């Protein structure tokens, strides 16, 4: 039974926001473990198609670009329709697409609140709902379907940066993960979440552009690698993670749980 514990052989996956950063790391990891097809989305067609081409050439499976803006219900419905047209079953859904906004408390705009809340909380819920049929079709007691929400350690502890809607959205997504898990496990759909710490990405410019400085504030002494993120996603997506239901795994080098200082002090995401 321990053989091929982390294999994703033949599985079909969708990774939103998969053209770069954490989404690209996860898409690569799924393909590396044998996924047959991994669909990736992004707002910009060029980078999405380029990443799909690159990952297809590098791994055995096929990476397929679906450049769609899923920040609106129309975009969510369009993406769900594309997947349903192409695939009768969907084994893995990774809700990774997200946005951030920072501004002083007294100046924080409604637009910065709504944009972040819609993409970070509303989209994962309604996209999962829209894809419930192919997820249920893929799911069984022996091989559950998987939904993995990408949260953030900013949803677990207080980051000193004034990213109010981002922190609230990620905390909300962590609790939404628990609530969705309690409902969907009865359909053999396992819902979990990953809360990343510092990884190189366009959203985390500090880790991308000032790696050495950020690493000093991480108990593990470094920022996250592609393998760190891919490995956690592979665990949750594979048979190895079938019994992990509703949990959020912090992948952060110990910032949240191994930091001897005051939570959040001096941290810069």
Q: Which structural class do you get from the secondary structure elements?
A: alpha/beta
Percentage of residues in helical conformation: 40-55%
What's the CATH topology name?
Rossmann fold
| Number of H- or I-type helical stretches | 9
Spatially, the strands of the biggest sheet line up as 3-2-1-4-5-6-7
- Categorize the overall geometry: globular
Low-confidence runs (pLDDT<50, min 5 residues)?
A: 264-269
The count of DSSP E runs of length 2 or more, i.e. the number of strands, is: 7
**CATH 4th-level superfamily:** NAD(P)-binding Rossmann-like Domain
Average predicted confidence as pLDDT: 93
What is the correct CATH architecture?
3-Layer(aba) Sandwich
Distance between the termini: 40 Å
How is the main sheet built?
A: 7 strands, parallel
- CATH class category name: Alpha Beta
Give the tally of structural domains: 1
Task: Report the sheet-strand fraction.
Answer: 5-15%
H-E string: EHEHEHEHHEHEHHHE
| Radius of gyration, in angstroms, nearest whole number | 18 Å
Family: Belongs to the short-chain dehydrogenases/reductases (SDR) family.
Pfam family, one: adh_short_C2
Organism: Bradyrhizobium denitrificans
Protein name: SDR family oxidoreductase
Describe this structure in words.
- 41% of the residues lie in helices and 13% in strands.
- By secondary structure, it is of the alpha/beta class.
- The protein has a single domain, classed as NAD(P)-binding Rossmann-like Domain (Rossmann fold, 3-Layer(aba) Sandwich).
- Strands 3-2-1-4-5-6-7 form a 7-stranded parallel beta sheet, with helices on both faces.
- The protein is globular and about 50 Å long.
- It comes from Bradyrhizobium denitrificans.
């Amino acid at each position: 039974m321990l053989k091929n514990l982390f294999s994703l052989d033949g599985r079909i996956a969708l990774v939103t926001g998969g053209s770069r950063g954490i989404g690209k790391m996860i898409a690569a990891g799924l393909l590396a473990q044998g996924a047959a097809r991994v669909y990736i989305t992004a707002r910009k067609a060029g980078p999405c198609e380029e990443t799909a081409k690159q990952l297809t050439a590098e791994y055995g499976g096929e990476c397929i670009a679906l450049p769609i803006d899923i920040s609106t219900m129309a975009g969510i419905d369009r993406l769900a329709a594309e997947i349903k047209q192409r695939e009768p079953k969907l084994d893995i859904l990774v809700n990774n697409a997200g946005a951030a906004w920072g501004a002083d408390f007294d100046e924080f705009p409604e637009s910065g609140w709504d944009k972040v809340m819609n993409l970070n909380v509303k989209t994962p819920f309604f996209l999962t709902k829209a894809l419930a049929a192919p997820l249920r079709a893929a799911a069984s007691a022996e091989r559950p379907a998987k939904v993995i929400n990408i949260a953030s350690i900013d949803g677990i502890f207080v980051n000193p940066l004034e990213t109010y809607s981002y922190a609230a959205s990620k905390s909300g997504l962590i609790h939404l993960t628990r609530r969705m898990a309690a409902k969907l496990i009865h359909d053999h759909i396992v819902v979990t979440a990953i809360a990343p710490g510092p990884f190189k990405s366009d959203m985390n410019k500090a880790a991308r552009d000032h790696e050495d400085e950020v690493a000093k504030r991480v108990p593990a002494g470094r920022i996250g690698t592609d393998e760190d993120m891919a490995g956690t996603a592979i665990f949750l997506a594979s048979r190895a993670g079938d019994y992990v239901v509703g949990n959020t795994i912090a992948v952060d080098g110990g910032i949240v749980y191994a930091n001897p200082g005051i939570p959040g002090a001096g941290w810069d995401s």
